[in-house]
Queue: 2 jobs
Job 1
Amino acid sequence: MSKRFYITTAIDYVNGQPHLGHAYEKIIADVIARARRSLGEDVFYLTGLDEHGQKVQQAAIAEGKTPQAYCDALAADWQAFAKKLELTNDDFVRTTQPRHKAYVQAQLAKLHAAGHFYKAGYTGFYSAKEETFLTEKDRQADGKFDTSYGDVVELKEDNYYFKLGAHQQWLIDYIEANPDFIAPSYRRNEVLGFLKNNKLEDLCISRPLARLNWGIPLPFDPEFVTYVWFDALVNYASIAAAHPELGLWPADIHVIGKDIVKFHAVYWPIMLKAMELPLPKQVLVHGWWQKDGAKISKSTGNIIDPIAVINEWGLDAFRFYVLRELDIGPDGNWTDAGFRSRYQAELANGLGNLVNRSLSMLKRYRNGVVPEKSTELAADAAKAADETRALLQQNQLQAALQSIWGLVNRANQYVDQTAPFKLAKDPAQAQRLDEVLYNLAETCRVLAVLLNPFLPGTSAKIYAQLGLIGTPDKLADASWGGLPPGHTIGEPAALFPRKDEPKK
Ligand code: MSP
């Protein structure tokens, strides 16, 4: 049996409510997971929460709660959010779970025994807000640290360090020998540039209890807890180990945002090497969303609440916009006008109109009974199916949607060219009308199959309106001719109701 395809997202800090950026990443991973299942692979999709560390501890204190009670309350919101997005995740990790903590401690003990750590003293300027020591390079021209670091204090403390630096050349060689390890390629080049031009410092993997107690205790020194990133990255392996019967490790894809590449493409591979585990096949890096050309920020109110958008427009409209608007890689910009315009043009007038008029005409002119097979649009459908399959295998989600809309537009154009409403008026054209109606209904069926990973709800609706049983979740079913003549379709209904323009 082939190995299960194992895909993960970053685990989110549980110090607030989910926003567009979090939703985007989970949707990318969900589409890839659904696509791989549709291609016949066994898949395991993991997402979850990063619950330890200073940020969470501070947020809990600010609300007058214990960190655990704070995390438990928010974890319920985040799990409900995953449901709202209809993610097909197979597990949901919380780093406060015993299964994860025990695994992290076992790895730490093993690495310590094998001599990968050493203890040393350090004096430096510490930003609690960013949970990091700052260096001289971080000072501004006036000698001060930027206000974005919050209060910066001078600290002296002992800590444990992981001998990261020793593996620098090995990592460069690995990335050069495995060109797909970091995607897109410009992110790979950035990592290589960084590794070739900087000396890798050893990584501080502990925090003294006096400064932070919300973390996993070091198994070999009770005076310290584990640095939150060392704890968080391990989730990918700890949860794989929690399902030993599935043989999940190594992961196939870690989907992450561009701000955390160094952790996933530098620290994590070296940690895995020390842990004597194989490396994930790919770190897939997406860009960041802005709104109206400015940073998304709670404090300035420049935010998009995914739940509000979904409640107003439907989940598939939200999934469609983020996937169609932005390729995996560059940064994107959300505008409400852009969202409305894609909804009207591509969903309501494009896909929705095609399905609605195709099925309504079949109902009206042939009582909903599918006519004899015809292959006039078969080549167009095959082209879209072949392209979609190939693009999905390369995680090119935006391009796959463009190809699918090539078929939507072709079929809408076919309606205009063949004018079935005119054919219906002329009894001598009955056979021609049969042909046209078959081509349209069958194109709708193919579209349901191709759209399934992206817009699962819409795909299921198209299937149900075609009167078909089951779910169109196998890409192999996109081949032309699946709709049997003589079959009676279901009831057509608008997929994307038109929305009035907002009142001026
Ligand atoms: N907890 C760490 C990740 C640990 S993974 C072992 C973390 N959490 S986060 O909540 O800050 O970010 C989670 C993910 O959301 C990251 O991949 C991040 O890049 C992504 N995004 C956060 N804001 C974003 C946008 N505005 N746009 C797109 N993605 C964004 O980092």
Job 2
Amino acid sequence: MKRIGIMTSGGDAPGMNAAVRAVTRKAEHEGLEAYGINYGYAGLLAGDIFKMDSRTADDIINRGGTILYSARFPEFAEEPVQLKGIEQLKKFGIDAVVVIGGDGSYHGALRLTEHGFNAVGLPGTIDNDIPFTDFTIGFDSALQTAVDNIDKLRDTARSHERTFVVEVMGRNAGDIAMWAGVAGAAEDVIIPEKDFNIEDVAAKLKSARARGQKHNIIVLAEGVMTAAEFAKKLEPFGDFQLRATTLGHIQRGGTPTAFDRVLATRMGVYAVELLLEGKGGLAVGIQNNKLVYHDMLDLFDSKHQPDMDLYKVAKDLAF
Ligand code: ADP
Ligand code: F6P
């Protein structure tokens, strides 16, 4: 193996650049060359590929977003399109690829491996919804952004004795909501993995108010419904001075936290080591602070499990 391609694909996440830098520098350290593939699988097909080195990877560890851009390119699910992508890998002399993205991106990586080009996936998504890893690259940064904003909303909630429904990202996973709810001392946390009863939520708010608490925060994962819809459902149950806020894509941007930078760096280095061992079709993760890899096929058969102990903590303190 002489040349490794690197791409970021699917939704961007803070820390992706740290992973790109780590793969580039580790490749150089091992006497290999690194090639950046812009715009995920769309850029692979278009041959939007360039040589990277430690200089092109300078000053990116602290930058949000992805310097390699990202794209959604569903056409890559079709075999003739994959074969055109393989032609580009051959043209640029790329022998193996590191794909940073979510499980959709991993499907593309597995196809590359099946076509004879080993590919290893790094979990890059703010949602923390990838199986076989305790944390994904970007989750910690997005969480910090959510908590910073909840703290701001708490100030104004307190001044006006209001209840804020704060919608955080998480299409299918409640991890951001759960962690942000605990860190932001929310009165309730609503996640897609658990049913909720609007009457119970209202009763909780009423009891909090009856005990003298005059402002409240409810953290809601976007996968459940919008903050505005949730506030509407609560309205008939009492005068809670409701306000609805959607944090949205703000959670995807900004400076990656030190945790995400270190996680991405360790994973990037590990991916190159796996490729050097001739391995492919693998998804890198971190479990109990140890880097691990799993077969992508096993990963596709699994579902991310939210931390129900943490959910219980959130619920036990919410009254
Ligand atoms: P994520 O990687 O964050 O889950 P997507 O599901 O949008 O995001 O997938 C990212 C990209 O991965 C897609 O735009 C497409 O290019 C590629 N991809 C997704 N599913 C497949 C598949 N079944 N086969 C090949 N490539 C795929
Ligand atoms: O998967 C990451 C994520 O940010 C989700 O939390 C969110 O639902 C989705 O991507 C938004 O996607 P888009 O950037 O295409 O609007």
